[in-house]
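A favour, since you know our structure tokens better than I do. What I am after is a single protein written out in full by you. Could you add the entry underneath, on a fresh line?


***
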Amino acid sequence: MGSNLRRRMADGSAVHTAEFIISSARLTELHECAALLRRTRMRAEEIVDEARTLLAEAEQFGDTDRVPSLTEQLEQARNAYDRVLTAYLMISRRITDERQSILQAQMERDRPAGLSGAA
């Protein structure tokens, strides 16, 4: 059994398999993070809408005491939404990069030795 493992390591297939497993696990984790951030982003959007509605109602009814604090709350909600959106976009880019890395590794593994690829 030991010699079989050494032979597989020599041609790199065991290494490629391990790298693929790790990349796939990393991609799965990134997808899970993206799903969580997507839900968080949707909730943050709802909070911004609610804050905007409360501010509009206070302005409409002339509630000058509450307008400054509601304006501040709306700004905080927008800032939080921006941070969540930025994180979501970053995770989306990392997912794309990881997929591209996996595809590149598969193409390199499957490419016959000695061919330039220009043919």
Summary: Residues 12-109 form one domain. DSSP finds three helices and no strands in the chain. The first helix runs from residue 2 to 11.
